[in-house]
Fold this sequence. Notes:
The complex is a heterodimer.
Chain A: E1 4-7, E2 10-13, E3 19-25, E4 32-38, E5 45-51, E6 57-58, E7 67-73, E8 76-81, E9 90-98, E10 102-105, E11 109-113
Parallel strand pairs in A: 2-11
Antiparallel strand pairs in A: 1-3, 3-8, 4-5, 4-9, 5-6, 7-8, 9-10, 9-11
Chain B: E1 4-7, E2 10-14, E3 19-25, E4 31-37, E5 43-48, E6 52-56, E7 59-64, E8 69-74, E9 83-90, E10 98-99, E11 103-108
Amino acid sequence: GAVVSQHPSRVICKSGTSVKIECRSLDFQATTMFWYRQFPKQSLMLMATSNEGSKATYEQGVEKDKFLINHASLTLSTLTVTSAHPEDSSFYICSGAGQELGYTFGSGTRLTVV
Amino acid sequence: GIQVEQSPPDLILQEGANSTLRCNFSDSVNNLQWFHQNPWGQLINLFYIPSGTKQNGRLSATTVATERYSLLYISSSQTTDSGVYFCAVGRDNTDKLIFGTGTRLQVFP
């Protein structure tokens, strides 16, 4: 079946640095990639939607200059958390959507900012 | 936007018990899915069920679209069923999914 590979699975970074999270669709073309954030014991909150080759659409309250999303190809999307702070510590999950395949979720990235 | 509420928020069961989880949504949708999030965070798709009833082993789900709710039934629960169950809705099969508040299930031996 369809697989989205998400890396890294865990990352610890220092406050003020940037972190890049990658999601690759391995056996299908993800025309759309959704990025979610999940704080402990809470639900998944949609951060942004990206379509290949165009700018991402951010949900209300999500800073586009802080969470940079790139979807340069049909198989790769990246989320960069810039100038990370402890409050950005969270679980980030991507989901790729392709024609007739529905949604395929990555395994998530647990980010800890110290 | 669409609001998705799930109940109960927490559920504790002994192995072998049955349970019903509920998902209410505030607007018409053409996509509704149930997920199980395991302790490592991985989301596992259980059902795609915008309407009607489906069964898969010990799990079954029913969505009454006209009344804007869906139910997930777990029969003969096992410890491996523990985790968080989410329903998620969307306008169609490729639109963004809005996740519900979740039900945290703990099954004890």
